Amino acid sequence: MTLDEAREGQHCRILSLPGKDIRAQAIRFGINEGEFITCTAVIPGGPIIVAKNRQEIAIGRGLAKKITVEPITNPHPVKFPARRRAYGLPRP
Question: N or C: which end of the chain has fewer CB within 10 A?
């Protein structure tokens, strides 16, 4: 499946990133093939928000359609995404 098909709260592992330019840019954000991410939000008609460790990144739909991921059933927990703190939501 591709990243644009992920649902909010779904945990995934990145299988492939398209092109070496996009791969280099993703590595700068700490995302590489084989990394575990969590889809924290899906904006209708907009970007996909993914979290890795304590960082959230918005990935545009066009790029998300090119990133291949696999859903994970037993994920590594993502502790306290920044979005929760920004909105004053309680920690889980």
Answer: C
